[in-house]
Design a protein that fits this description.
twelve-stranded mixed beta sheet, four-stranded antiparallel beta sheet, about 525 residues
Length: about 525
């Protein structure tokens, strides 16, 4: 059986290798096989993990970083910061001599200044800003945490000092500045684009301060970056970094085994036993802050009825899903918040599988004869859901037992996300990976009213009671007091069920055994600054 698996992978590799010349990909660099194409090249404008993995930590830096072991905040572009006694003013001191990328389309005339930070965040905050509406005025993460209601002003108080004024205290403010979405852009580059009538290029021909600069993008084929020689942390180990776009899981695995790719995203769990026996492959695995879930579009009938949502939840066999989809490489979810979070509520009961009670609830809701619905399944593999199509098929079979006829829907990944944001779905299998260690990162971006408007709330659920709970938690820095609000919020979600939390998955990646300097960050994103190839 093992021989057949290896043979089939090799055949796929040989066939895929004929599609284009792979030689130039590897010269002087590293090849990462990614599962999809980036939507564009500005992290502010996405929440897609596929896009963030490719662009954020390769091209950009943030004011703050996150310690992957402790979750503590660390200096990055900001060397230090201070908060006022009332928690409404933050001032950041920037590092001197941080250089922006020099590319074939931009030559910087100066290093990073406070003006760049002001430009970066005022683009999001100010509707009359010349770049605010570029790309459609969509900043989903910042809109989901109600950034414009929180931040009243961003201003330079010196060439290398910048001040944020807040309308209220917010205990998650610094954590949000450390997310992959809070990338710092170049105001000088933006000014040149505006003067030449090319403002949209700010998101398609990017300029940052990160370890690599943009060189080439062929849609659905590859993204190529070159080493930033003047990077403030020191030069990257590799002169070139290529993201080879390979949506097919089997092809990604085959390319790893034939050494066409050095690293692959999300190897198929069914094949872990096979690849761990190979001396030329190394598998990395880590507990990760994430959740895979099934969200209901609560703005559509019958999903606006809590009894229907409860019935659908009781109809599904979570244990079977963990075995068939995650191969037991995940923890059964009780709520959206993973058990490793300090705000996790252990009193939430484990998922109950009770088809009989599900049928009773449907009858009470007026759907005793069932109904038709669709389940949208992601076309790509993500850490929180390694096989959404397989999961959809299992749900489809479970729902048939209570008289609900479910059809499965999928599209190309970027089209899938666009149509999902427009609310075309009845329900969707998707998920979330943490961007920082603050529990708010699982609540506001996924389930707040602001997130329903921005598109990251896939249930399109807006509940003022829930919003009050999570907003109260932000007004205090006392962790025990915050935890009490989050415990109550998780119980409220358990009762209302805008979504069914399925699993918290292990994060796994596979790489050529000659590649070092790559590790898994539990707070999302992929950093390849220190990646290097060593001789055996």
């Amino acid at each position: 059986m093992k021989y057949l698996s290896c043979l089939s992978l090799l055949c796929v590799a040989l066939l895929s290798g004929c599609s284009r010349d792979q030689g130039p990909l590897r010269e002087g660099g590293l090849v990462y096989c990614a599962e999809g194409s980036p939507e564009h090249f500005n992290p502010q404008r996405v929440t897609s993990g596929t896009t963030i993995d490719i662009i954020s930590q390769q091209l950009y830096d943030r004011l703050l970083d996150i310690d992957p072991q402790s979750g503590d905040l660390l200096p990055a572009l900001a060397s230090s910061w201070q908060r006022s006694a009332d928690g409404r003013t933050y001032e950041f001191q920037l590092r001197p001599d941080v250089q922006f990328h020099q590319t074939h389309y931009f030559t910087p005339g100066r290093p990073l200044q406070a003006a760049d930070v002001v430009f970066t965040f005022n683009r999001i905050l100010q509707p009359d800003h010349p770049f605010h509406a570029v790309g459609g005025a969509v900043y989903p993460y910042f809109q989901s945490v109600d950034w414009t209601a929180l931040v009243t002003e961003v201003r330079a108080t010196g060439p290398l000092t910048v001040q944020f004024q807040l309308s209220r205290p917010d205990s998650s403010f610094l954590s949000n500045l450390a997310t992959d979405f809070a990338a710092i852009l170049s105001a000088e580059y933006a000014g040149q684009l505006l003067a030449s009538g090319r403002p949209t290029q700010i998101d398609s021909l990017p300029v940052g301060t990160g370890p690599f600069f943009f060189r080439e993008y062929q849609k659905d084929v590859l993204v190529r970056f070159y080493r930033h020689a003047n990077y403030w942390r020191g030069e990257a180990a590799m002169a070139q970094l290529v993201f080879d776009i390979v949506p097919n899981n089997a092809r990604r695995m085959a390319k790893l085994l034939t050494h066409e790719c050095d690293i692959i995203a999300y190897p198929r769990l069914a094949e872990l036993a096979l690849i761990t026996e190979r001396p030329d492959v190394r598998v990395q695995e880590s507990t990760s802050m994430n959740v895979g879930f099934w969200a209901f579009n609560t703005r559509k009938a019958p999903f606006d009825n809590v009894k229907v949502r409860q019935a659908l939840s009781l109809a599904i066999n979570q244990r079977a899903i963990l075995q068939a989809v995650y191969f037991n490489q995940a923890t059964a979810a009780r709520s959206v918040l993973p058990p490793t979070s300090w705000a996790f509520n252990p009193q939430i009961p484990l998922h109950e599988y009770n088809p009989q009670r599900a049928r009773e609830l449907l009858a009470e809701a007026g759907y005793g004869n069932g109904f038709n619905m669709n389940i949208w399944a992601m076309p790509v593999q993500r850490l929180y859901n390694p096989n959404a199509l397989k999961m959809a098929e299992l749900l489809q079979a479970d729902l048939a037992q209570i008289g609900v006829n479910a059809s499965i829907v999928s599209y190309e990944w970027n089209a899938f996300r666009r149509r999902l944001s427009q609310g075309e779905h009845d329900s969707v299998l998707i998920g979330w990976a943490a961007d920082n260690a603050d529990p708010d990162n699982f609540f506001r971006p996924l389930l707040s009213c602001a997130a329903a408007d921005s598109g990251s709330n896939r249930a399109l659920w807006c509940d003022p009671v829930f919003d009050r709970m999570i907003n109260q938690a932000l007004l205090t820095s006392d962790q025990q007091q915050r935890r009490s609000y989050y415990l109550a919020a998780q119980q409220y979600l358990h009762n209302e069920l805008p979504l069914v939390a399925m699993a918290h998955s292990q994060r796994i990646q596979a790489l050529n055994s000659q590649v070092e300097g790559v590790s898994i960050n539990p707070y999302g994103g992929i950093a390849l600054f220190q990646a290097r190839r060593v001789q055996p």
